[in-house]
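@channel sequence for tomorrow's demo:
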Amino acid sequence: MTTDHTDVLIVGGGPAGMMTGITAAQFWPDKHITVIRPEDDALVPCGIPYIFGTLGGTEEDLAGRAPFLAAGGHLIIDNVTDVDLDARTATLESGRQLSWERLVLATGSRPFVPPIPGHELAGVFTVLKDYDYLDELLTETLPDLRRLVVVGGGFIGVEFGDELRKRKIEVHIVEQRPQLLSASFDSDACSIVEQRLREHGVHVHTGVTVAAIEADEAGKRVAGVRLDDGRMIEADAVLIAIGARPNTDLAHAIGLTLARSGGVWVDGFQRTREHPNVFAVGDCAHKQDYFTRHASHALLASQAAAEGRIAGMNLYALRLPRANAGTIAVYASQVGDLAFGVAGLTEASARDIGFEVFTGTSRVPDHHPATMPDTREVFCRLVFDGNSERLLGGQILGGPTTGELVNIIGVAIQLHATASDLASFQFGSQPRLTAPVHPIVAATGEALRARAHCRDNLPRSTQ
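structure tokens (generated this afternoon):
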């Protein structure tokens, strides 16, 4: 068997794998870099829900390969079936063999399907990142649907619910927590999103679980969903959207250490425990929370891309400033014209961890004066540590500026910004582009004011 050589072999061509390849090409331009992935057309993971409504077609959500190829990378459409770590070779499904100096596993994740009775019935779907599967769902299944149940009220469930209702399908979202999005937002923010969904005709069922997916008279297809409170929701289809689990089949087969969270154990440079020349990035790699270093189960394309950059920089020499500090979990989404995003901890999660916190909230228009066309109110809540004043997290609800405001909060957390820092940071202002007072500055000022008021009203013996 002829063995070809590549310096860097990346298994998987999603956001993590492609970003590893692009970054490696930038930092190690003399190296030959190869990405192997099974699909010719890879999808943008975050765009998958929008295929079914806003985009209107699977081909509209393709992830570009041009930046990687332009950087000198090589793409092979195939599957890796075996890896010999001692010989540093990989065998492909086609029979081809490659030798490598550095190996990067970017094998992604698979949808998690709980053992709900009836989950194997025809008409039960998951969120597979597969072009052909999703295209068939869009073009052959959805046109005949009248009523669909989404199991899971996190970001993915909410996004699918809002997009599918645009196809005139009656959509029901079932979530076992007391509110939709409650793992990511505090209660009042969750209520705002729930209300907007209801206004758009989406039926929201919270605080209940799916006891069973019921079959039709023939026992083959979905007829409805039975909830644990006894209610029955008739449905033509069920979409299970309650998260994903790391795809570590290859890592397990070649003997790499897996963390208890299920992902491949990696250090701060994305290196595996046994082999410093083998890296893991993206959904298949273990995640640690930024604040506690506990396992984090947030599988985000943005985090995967960040890990790809870290691995790509550190393939041949460690760069201390380019280590993984942990997962902050920066999310953003939109229902109708309501955008919502979060970075870091909520007030509830911070208190659960054990932080003493103080918070501030602001509501300001995103243009000034507020009579400007297309002005939207921006709701901002910030959570600070009561001892160090460091920013722990923030939530934004508003219009088009929401995504970047959440990104600013994420940057501020990484830079260890305090309330005093944020209350005085300089920002630009323009009537058509920005709020009259920056929402983050306004919320920080409210937090400091409320904190000072509480201290002033403490009994002197406790001050």
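heads up for whoever presents: The chain has eleven helices and 24 strands.
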